[in-house]
Amino acid sequence: MRRTEAARELGGFVREHRTDGGRRLRTAGALLVTGVVGLAFGIPVTVASIGTTDGAPELAGLLLGVGLIGLGLGVWRLTQALRTREQCFDVHERGLTHRVAGHATLIPWTDIEGIGAVTADDGRLLAEARGMGLRYTIALRDGRGIRVDTFTEDAKELAETIHRAVHLGELPRGRGRRP
């Protein structure tokens, strides 16, 4: 669905919030490489440390742990990147258009239950770089949820706009003609 068709149903276009899929893929790649390197060093160290009680078993455990966690997080982030490729949220006067991989879903403000808890920073090392710095879920009345994280441009502004429209009745003002 093109933006102009959605604009007719949801009123004037206000702004768009794109999700940076390239950054999400780069993060997945870095995690996968970390996992592979951790396992590449961890497996030989584990084999070499069999039967010893020196520091080798601890080092082997550390390397294997980094490898497995890196691989797990990398696969998770890669799956997320592929599932939400070309994701974008278009804000209109009377709702949102959620676009993913060429498919658009119109979401009027009345179909939104609210915004889940907005986590601004989880406090962990490199949280923002890993895409965990800001996250929340747009809860729909039909029970579905759309996750938004720090990979989405101005995600905090999007949450504030949704909150104002759904709970306070302050609809955003678009530009252009109104149907």
Automatic annotation (TrEMBL):
Top-level taxon of origin: Bacteria
Protein name: PH domain-containing protein
Organism: Streptomyces violaceoruber
Keyword entries, A-Z: Membrane, Transmembrane, Transmembrane helix
Transmembrane segments: 28-47, 59-76
